[in-house]
Amino acid sequence: MRVPRSPRRTPGARRRRRIRIPRPALVLLACLPGLAAVLVLALCANGVGHLSGTTPRVPAAARPATLRHTAPQPRIVPRSAWLDALSRHAQPPPRYDDKVVAVFVHHTDSPNGYDCADAPRIIRYLYAGQTGVRDWDDIGYNFLVDRCGTIYEGRAGGVGRAVTGAHTQGFNHRTAGIAAIGTFTAGMVVPKAMTDAIAALAAWKLGLADVDPRTEAHLVSSNSLSRYAAGTSATLPALAGHKDGYMTSCPGAALLARLPEVRVAAARLQGR
């Protein structure tokens, strides 16, 4: 009688042998579906990503916020367009703050029926009055806007920097002054081109510090001639009227009434 030969094992046969799971272990796994699901999810979330050579994604809440609410810089006509060598007043170097957290809107209290081509001459006249009659070192406003919506650089120092102005008694630090060329008391018409330009300028300037034009700014009064005693902390609109910080009717009732919509427009330009 032939004795049956043992089956020949090929190389690697041992590695292909099935690993049999004991029946008690299968029963245990069947009774714990929640644990199995957790293990599968853990493999999908961690193991698969690492095995494929990818980096695990960081939750959005843990990633640093890099996006800021900014707005593009509008076109700004430089000082050289209105200040010639004969009119220039000797002045010290400009002074700066760390940033601009609020904007004050003014009116120049000058006639409204001007031709926009005459705006440089009007600004030069304002400059002469402030540096001559008032003996200031420069024009006080950081920017001026004419009725056609053209924006002019006012005070020297660089439009993109936080230049300390001389526009709002007690609150010239960390603020910018925007003057609307004209008189905008009650009943006067405020040109839309002018308010649109003010909104664009405020959106850009406040956006450099990621300030929402619809919110409030916390400022410290530096002069008791303002509405607040020197050293007093004041909470004012981030886009304010001159009268919010100083006892005056400026920027006029008509322009003051338009500021709420200017704030909304500026915030929209920042992508808010």
Short descriptors:
single chain, 272 residues, alpha/beta, Lysozyme-like, 6-stranded mixed sheet, two-stranded antiparallel ribbon, 5 helices, 8 strands, disordered N terminus
Strand order of the largest sheet: 1-4-3-5-2-8
Estimated helix fraction:
25-40%
Order of helices and strands: HHEEHEEEHEEEH
Largest sheet, in brief, is:
6 strands, mixed
Radius of gyration: 34 Å
Overall average pLDDT? 83
Strand content: 5-15%
- CATH superfamily, called what? Peptidoglycan recognition protein-like
Based on helices, strands and strand pairing, what is the structural class?
alpha/beta
Number of domains: 1
User: Runs with pLDDT <50, length 5+?
Assistant: 1-19, 24-64
Do you know the CATH architecture?
A: 3-Layer(aba) Sandwich
Overall 3D form = globular
Number of strands: 8
Helix count from the secondary structure assignment: 5
Short description, anyone?
This protein has helices at 23-31, 33-51, 119-133, 192-207, 253-269, and strands spanning 76-77, 102-107, 143-145, 151-153, 175-180, 216-220, 233-237, 239-241. The longest helix is centred in the first third of the chain and has 19 residues, at 33-51. The strands form 2 sheets. The chain has a 6-stranded mixed beta sheet, covered by helices on one side. A two-stranded antiparallel sheet has the order 6-7.
